[in-house]
Amino acid sequence: NQKVSMDNMKLSMLEGTMMMNGSYATSVPDHPEMDFLLNIKDFDIKKTFNTFNAAEKIAPVGKYCLGKFSSNMVIAGRLDKKMEAELNTFAGGGGISTKNVMVENFEPLNKVADAIGNPKLKKMQVSDVNLTFKFKDGRINIDPFDVKIGESKATVSGSNGFDQTLKYVMKMEIPTSELGSTANTI
Q1: Is the distance from CB of 168 to CB of 157 less than 8 angstroms?
Q2: Average per-residue pLDDT for the chain
Q3: Residue-wise DSSP of 96-155
């Protein structure tokens, strides 16, 4: 019936593993449909970003990260004639966890670092992160999650669009010892 089902398909790739359950259907050949449950363990962030075209649109910050991530997610949507994801059709969601990720050269953080005069924020070691997300209306909506950045604590929430727009709020507690010269003069 123009449908392939995959049950407990295990792949070793990108320095980690992925277990995949779901289906791929070609009843509409120009727009095949996919519906998968993915269980990803310890994928290398940089290699994932460089391997999958959709990664830049799904998680644009990945370009600036070093480390590994794990995820459980449900994802359903369509592909185009070239087998590339039609991201605006995505539905589903899940969770992502990271351990000791390094973020550097990410322009929004560079601007924060410059504004408060603390160059340490331009290259940040981010402690363990656990977040949940949903695909909806061409955006990935991230539920509020806590993260420790150096000696500072932050709560982050918001969304990024597949059109490369970012809408995030970061509430951050920064010890005065971490404030730079610009902030200390205020």
Answers
A1: yes
A2: 87
A3: EEEEEEEEES-HHHHHHHHHHT-GGGGEEEE--EEEEEEEETTEEEEEEEEEEETTEEEE
139: exposed, middle or buried (Cβ count in 10 Å: 0-12, 13-18, 19+): buried
Chain segment 54-99, per-residue pLDDT in tens: 787 778 788 889 999 999 999 999 999 888 888 889 999 999 999 8
CA–CA dist 122, 125 (Å, integer): 10
User: Of 123, 126, 125, 127, whose CA–CA distance to 104 is shortest?
Assistant: 123
Identify whether the C-beta of residue 34 lies closer than 8 Å to the C-beta of residue 22. Answer: yes
Q: How far apart are CA 73 and CA 36, in angstroms?
A: 8
The average pLDDT across 95-120 equals 85
